[in-house]
Amino acid sequence: MTPFLEMHGISKTFPGVKALNRVDLTLRAGEVHVIAGENGAGKSTLMKIMTGVLRADPGGVIRIEGKDTVIKDPVHARALGISIIYQELAVVNNLTVAENVFLAREPIGPLGLLDKRRMADETRAVLSELEVAIDPSAKVGQLSIGQRQLVEIARAISYRSKLIIMDEPTASLSHHEASTLIRMVRKLASQGIGIVFISHKLDEIFEIADRVSVLRDGETVDSRPIAEMTRDILVRKMVDRDLSQLFGEHHSHATDEVLLSVRALGEKHHGQIGVKVSDVSFDLHRGEILGFFGLVGAGRTEVMEMIFGSRPHVGEVHIGGQKVKISNPSEAIAHGLGFVTEDRKELGLVLGMSVRENFSLTHLSDYCTLDVVSRPRETAACMEFVRSLGIKTPSTEQKVLNLSGGNQQKVVIAKWVARRPRILIVDEPTRGIDIGAKAEVHALLNKLAEEGISIIVVSSDLPEILAISDRVIVLKEGRISGQIDRADATQERVMLAATG
Ligand SMILES: Nc1ncnc2c1ncn2[C@@H]1O[C@H](COP(=O)(O)OP(=O)(O)OP(=O)(O)O)[C@@H](O)[C@H]1O
Ligand SMILES: [Mg+2]
Predict the structure, then answer these.
(1) Ligand 2 geometric centre to CA of 384 (Å)
(2) What's the pLDDT score for residue 345?
C-alpha cells in the first residue's frame, strides 16, 4: 500500500545551524511511529516542515499518498489531513470545549448566526467516540492539562485528519492522564489514522510504538519495527553511549548538619482553590539530596513556592539554625536559595534574550568590577556551563527562543547553579530532557551535593527520584504521607505512600 507520507532528502538550515540533513522518513496509515532523539536532534523542526510551519531547504521531496506535494502553510497541511498537537497547548482557555474544537471554522446557520447547537452536537459525538466524559459547554480553562489535550485531539479528529503529530504530548501529564492518552493513540491507529509520537520516555516508547525512527544531529540514523528494537540499541543510537555507562553509582554526601528546617508550613488563605498544603515539616541536611514525590496535584510545587516566598504561607522556616522570614523570591535568593521552576516558559527564561543574557540574569554582579560588566568573564562562565551540560547552541549569543525545548531547560538549570546557592530546589529538572542530558543533570546535582550544597528534587518520575535521592518525602493531598530513607525506598513503598 502507498504510504500516507514519504519524505526524501529533507534538509533545513537555520543561520549557523544545520537542523536537518537529508532526512528520509516514511509514515503509514494505522501506524504509531515514534521519533526519538537527543535534545536538538531536529525532531520538532521535522514536524514543523510536515505541518507547513517551516519550509524545507530546496532539494528534498515530500510525497503524500504517492503524489509530490509542497506543503505551503498550516492551513494547507490541515486540508491535506495533517494535524499537530503541540506540547505547549494551543487551546483558548476562555472559550468552551465546542468553540475550541470548531475554532476558526465555526458552522453558520441559515440566519447567518453561529450554529451553536451543531457545534455542541458534533463535539459531543467526537468526544463520545473517544470515550471521554468532557462537557462540550465547559470552559477549557477549567479543565486539567490532560483534558485540554483531549480537546485538541477531538479537534484533530473533527478535521478528519489522516496523520496526527504529537510532540512530547505526555510531558506535563499525570501518570493516569498519560495512560488515557496512550490508549487513545492506540485506538486512533486501529481506526487507520497515522500517528507520529515524539517522546523522551523509554517506557512509553516501548508501550506505544509500532515503529521507531531515531534522529541524531539532523540525520535519520535508524528506523525499525519496535519488535526489533531494544532499550540498549535505542539509547546507543540516540546518544552514542551505552545505557549502563550513563548513570553512575549513588554516593550520599549528606552530613548531620541541618541547613533548612521547615515547620508546620501551610496555606495562608483558607478557601483558596487548589490543593491545601498543611502541616508540612521536614529537615534538609547539608549536602543532602532530598526527593519530593507525589502525584500531580499533591502540592509539591506549592510547598516549594512557599519556601521560596512566592506563595503566602503560615509556619516557620529556619536556615542554618536561624529563623528567617521570606516573603518574596529576592529575600529567598538573599538567604542563599535557588529555585529551578517547573515551568520554564513562564518563569524560568526570557525567550527573546540570548543564552548568555538569560544565564547571567540572576547573578550579573558576579562578573562586575566597579559596576562594569566584564563581558569576556561572563561569556567564559556561560561557555563553561554550555560545555558541561552539553547545551546545543551555535554560540552563547543565540536567542533562547531558537533552542530546542530540552536545551532551554538546561539553560534554566545553568543559570541557577551558577549563582552557587546554599540550597537549591529543582522542580521537575529533567522534564523534556533526553536520556543523555538527564544523566548529566543527575551527575551535576551529585557534584553540587558533594560540594556541600543541599538539594531538593521535585519529580513525578519515580525512577528518577529513587536514583538520585538520599531520602524521599512523599506528599499526598497537601500533607506529608511518608519519609523514606534511600535504603528502604522501593517503587512500591513510595507509590503506596503517594496513593494511600
Ligand atoms: N528558528 C530557529 N532558528 C535557529 N535555530 C533553530 C530554530 N529552530 C530550531 N533551531 C535549531 O535546530 C536544531 C533542532 O531543533 P529541534 O527543536 O528540532 O530539536 P528537537 O529534536 O525537537 O529537540 P528537543 O528534544 O529538545 O525538543 C537545534 O539545534 C535548534 O537550536
Ligand atoms: Mg522538540
Answers:
(1) 24
(2) 60
| Per-residue pLDDT at 409 | 83
Asked whether residue 343 carries a pLDDT value surpassing 80, the answer given is no
- Here the cell at position 116 is 451553536
CATH 3.40.50.300 maps onto the chain at: 5-241, 258-499
pLDDT at position 107: 75
CA–CA separation, 258 and 255 (whole Å): 8
Q: How confident is the model at residue 66 (pLDDT cuts 50, 70, 90)?
A: very high
Q: Which homologous superfamily does the CATH classification assign to the domain defined by 5-241? A: P-loop containing nucleotide triphosphate hydrolases (3.40.50.300)
Smallest Cα–Cα separation from 275: which of 291, 251, 295, 250? 295
Query: How far is ligand 1, taken at its centre, from the CA of residue 75, in Å?
Result: 23
Integer-rounded Cα radius of gyration of the chain: 24
Ligand 1 center–CA 101 separation, angstroms: 29
* pLDDT-derived band at 361, boundaries 50, 70, 90: confident
The DSSP 8-state label assigned to residue 210 in this structure reads S
User: Into which CATH architecture does domain 258-499 fall?
Assistant: 3-Layer(aba) Sandwich (3.40)
Is this model's pTM higher than 0.85 or not? no
Q: Which residues are found with C-beta within 5 Å of the ion, ligand 2?
A: 44, 404-405
> DSSP strand E in 99-218: where?
163-167, 194-198, 211-216
| CA of residue 51 to ligand 1 center, whole Å | 16
418 neighbors 377 (Cβ within 8 angstroms) = no
pLDDT in tens, 178-226: 888 898 899 999 999 999 999 999 999 999 999 999 999 999 999 999 9
* Residues in the ligand 1 pocket, defined by CB under 6 Å: 14, 17, 19, 37, 39-45, 392, 402-407, 434
Cβ pair 235, 86 in contact under 8 A: no
Number of the ligand closest to the Cα of 166? 2
Task: Please determine, for residue 489, whether its predicted confidence score (pLDDT) is greater than 90.
Answer: yes
CA 429 to centroid of ligand 1, rounded, Å: 20
> Which atom belonging to ligand 1 lies closest to the Cα atom of 407?
26
Tell me how far apart the alpha carbons of residues 19 and 131 are, in angstroms, rounded to a whole number.
Answer: 39
pLDDT of amino acid 440: 82
**Interhelix angle 405-417/375-388, nearest 10 degrees:** 120
Atom index in ligand 1 nearest the CA of residue 168 equals 27
Task: Report the atom number in ligand 1 closest to the C-alpha of 43.
Answer: 21
Which residue has its alpha carbon closest to ligand 1 atom 29? 40
